[in-house]
Design goal:
2 domains, 9-stranded mixed β-sheet, 6 helices, 12% helix
């Protein structure tokens, strides 16, 4: 019977993993041990997770074999997984953890998690650390099979958090904004004109009340990052007849942006018609239950920008769906001796209050009027 080989291409890789080059790997090499790795480091995250699976041969149905956890998971204590940090061009490990002046190696802790049902067993072993990572330099992953002595490695460049286009008004953009006007974030209260009558308040808060305008979210690229995903998250509160207040949010996702260079400080933007905000908001709220809701209160808007490094970009590009059945699709891996990806991303988020005119328009706009949004601004923190 013909043997079938299967390596774990994780179902969530395509959600946010980002070469034009192909690293050749003979996964069928007789007697060769191999691994499948998924690890995306994020210096903004509280915990780093790296998933490591076996690459296995199977007689018969490989998908059926994949449901057997012993085929895809290493046993407890079978692997030692470490991270070391190097400054670009250096071969000597440097500090790995923010807040520790001597630590030059992180040993990850293993745990078992339950994943969504699919082609493979739901119990998956992952390796993690809560050490705070640096946003500069390169991290090297080393996986050692303590029984066989086999070592697998990978290395990736880190990228920092995205910076605002204008320091006074993060992410939000007005063509003729006054640079000296403060742009308070959510929970900093609600200010009036300063000085009174100068009309500065509209510059300090999000205002998409003019439905004829094209609005922009602008930011600057960061060094070593190629891909940028922008999400505008609208937060609101459902008030029920029982008196409970349920916090909800709706995401507005924009197409992925790519920087031209990897040096950073490149001005980037996404744009949208203000009127589409109301149409999309109505379409998404319609998908949610309205049972028992008395009214809705606008809370705040959050801008979330995630940057992915060149390795992530390459991985996603190579693994994108093919538009031709005749194409001999390549694969990409930067795991020495294995398959998968070891890359980095970073994220930043800023939350803003809404201008009262904008809140009123959400209550009155033909698209959103049926959803019982209140006009009155209510300061709620957080």
């Amino acid at each position: 019977m013909k043997k079938r080989i299967l390596y774990i291409t994780l179902s969530f890789i395509s959600a946010l993993i980002f070469t034009a080059c192909k690293n050749d790997l003979d996964v069928l090499a007789p007697g060769e041990e191999s691994v499948s790795v998924y690890g995306i480091l994020n210096p903004n995250a509280a915990v780093q997770n790296i998933r490591i699976n076996k690459v296995y041969l199977s007689d018969g149905d490989a998908i059926t074999a994949g449901q057997d956890n012993s085929n895809i998971n290493y046993g407890s204590g079978e692997l030692k997984v470490t991270l070391q940090r190097y400054m670009t061009g250096s071969t000597t490990p440097t500090l790995t953890t923010i807040g520790n002046t001597s630590k030059k190696e992180i040993v990850l802790t293993e745990t078992v998690v339950t994943t969504a049902s699919g082609s493979f067993g739901q119990e998956q072993r992952i390796w993690q650390t809560s050490d705070k990572l640096f946003s500069k330099g390169e991290y090297k992953l080393t996986i050692t099979n303590v029984s066989t002595g086999k070592i697998f490695t990978a290395q990736t460049t880190m990228c920092d958090s995205v910076k605002s286009y204008n320091a006074a008004m993060p992410f939000k953009y007005y063509p003729n904004a006054i640079a000296s006007i403060a742009f308070p974030t959510h929970c900093n209260g609600y200010i009036l004109d300063s000085p009174p009558g100068t009309g500065t308040q509209p510059l300090a808060y999000v205002d998409y009340s003019n439905t004829t305008l094209i609005q922009k979210i602008k930011f600057k690229s960061v060094a070593n990052a190629r891909l940028y995903d922008v999400v505008m998250r609208f937060h609101y509160i459902d008030s029920t007849f029982t008196g409970a207040g349920n916090r909800q949010f709706i995401d507005f996702n924009f197409s992925t942006q790519k920087s031209i260079e990897l040096t950073g400080d490149e001005v980037m933007e996404v744009s949208f018609a203000a009127n589409e905000f109301y149409k999309n908001l109505a379409a998404e709220i319609t998908k949610k239950s309205s049972v028992g809701i008395k009214n809705r209160t606008v809370h705040y808007i959050e801008y979330i920008i995630t940057a992915g490094n060149e390795t992530l970009n390459t991985f996603l590009q190579v693994n994108a769906p093919s538009n031709s059945i005749a194409q001999d699709k390549p694969y990409y891996t930067n795991i020495n001796g294995g398959v998968g990806v070891f890359a980095s991303k970073s994220s930043s988020a800023i939350s803003k209050e809404l201008l009262s005119d904008f809140i009123d328009e959400i209550a009155d706009h033909p698209s959103t009027q049926p959803f019982m949004f209140q006009k009155t601004y209510t300061f709620i923190c957080p």
